[in-house]
Amino acid sequence: MAAKDFALPDLGEGLTESELVSWHVAVGDTVELNQPLADVETAKALVELPSPFAGVITKLYADPGTTVQVGAPIVAFEIEGDASDAGSAPAKPEREPVLVGYGPPIEGGGRPSRRARKGGRPLPEEVASPLAESPAETPRSTPPVRKLARDLGIDLASVTGTGDRGLITRDDVEAAASGGPDAGTTVAPRAGTDVQKRPSPSAGQSARGETRSPIQGVRKHTAAAMVQSAFTAPHASEFLTIDVTPTIELIATLKESPAFRGKRLNLLTVVAKALCIAAGRNPSVNSRWDDAAQEIVQFHYVNLGIATATPRGLMVPNIKDADTLDLVGLADALTALVETAKAGTAAPVDLSGGTISITNIGSFGIDAGTPILNTGEAMILALGAVKRMPWEFYGEIALRQVLTLSVSFDHRLVDGEQGSRFLADVGAILSNPAVLLTMV
Predict the structure, then answer these.
(1) Is 411 annotated in the active site?
(2) Band of residue 169 on the pLDDT scale cut at 50, 70, 90
(3) What are the structural domains, with CATH classification, of the chain?
(4) What is the average pLDDT score of the chain?
(5) pLDDT digits (tens, 9 = 90+) for 175-194
(6) Which of 24, 221, 300, 411 is catalytic?
(7) pTM for the predicted model, two decimal places
(8) Dihedral through CA 96, CA 102, CA 108, CA 114, nearest 10?
(9) Cα distance between residue 315 and residue 337, in whole Å
(10) Phi, psi of 292 (to 5 degrees)
């Protein structure tokens, strides 16, 4: 038998640390190769960390809720083999997975089986099947549900699952939380958090207290990225209010066509297509300022980021090579991307490499805004709410479907003229989709 330490691997995102959310194993457990060991939350995604060895767990170096540096040991194994092969502890495994979810190589030089996602791109088994079986003593649930339970101080061992084969669902956790501690006490905090209990209020005293949560995970990353973007890139913003009635009518017509039956076609899909075309005509908006190299990087492809509100916070997954997709392809890609982001199963590759982004603030009933650039990008387009308003139409006043487009851009990369031309192109397409015939 030999002792082996497993260090937190490089997750392939350029990040130096991750938060250990929860363990699937305990000391003394026998595990198999690629068996999920723990839920790990990076700044971008919540993923399951697979075991690089088959053996017995002898030590867990980190508690749930703690932040672990890349390269630091997190778990120790006792495995079959010569002790001389194990090296001195703590030692980094010779073959360590680089991307969480793909797992280490297996015998024969291959890797764990993967299923293909829409579009033919390989999907890790752990991501493709978020309901992967956990060890017998661990309640069955998905990573986002386990994260929710931990945040609410709910012990999943005390929750009865109502899902398929006893799966603990989000509703089960929320139901357990609603029947939890009485007012005036705090629910169990995550490990390492110093939270004091408030005494029960006396008559006439407010029962409202306060909740303190550690700044970490997605919220920590989002805050750091927004500060870096706001205080590094000189933002400029512009607005354009347009009549999108022709586009709304076009969408209604397309939904009835065979090509779009069963597809989720909406205004965001058309805006995404309009953005790709406008970016091709105004290439400065699809670029990056490389301060270290003192170079301007011009992208000849569009990796379109979609700002998505999820239970874990704001995420911006992106559609790779969105400019090569037709409207049907964009509809499929948008549906898949948003669903995986909200479910917490977006792969790291989907959350990096974006070149330009859209944020749909209109879905919250907001007319316009000044969005902050996604770090490293030159332009972000905000889509406002569509409202029926009096509008000049062929010399008369009519009720029309009107919305406001907002853009923010990095003024080091995009001049006012270029930003204006980009916004005007998007507006022209949405005001009169037939104008596309003059642009492509």
Answers:
(1) yes
(2) confident
(3) 2-124 (2.40.50.100), 139-193 (4.10.320.10), 229-438 (3.30.559.10)
(4) 79
(5) 888 764 433 333 344 444 44
(6) 411
(7) 0.60
(8) 180
(9) 11
(10) -65, -45
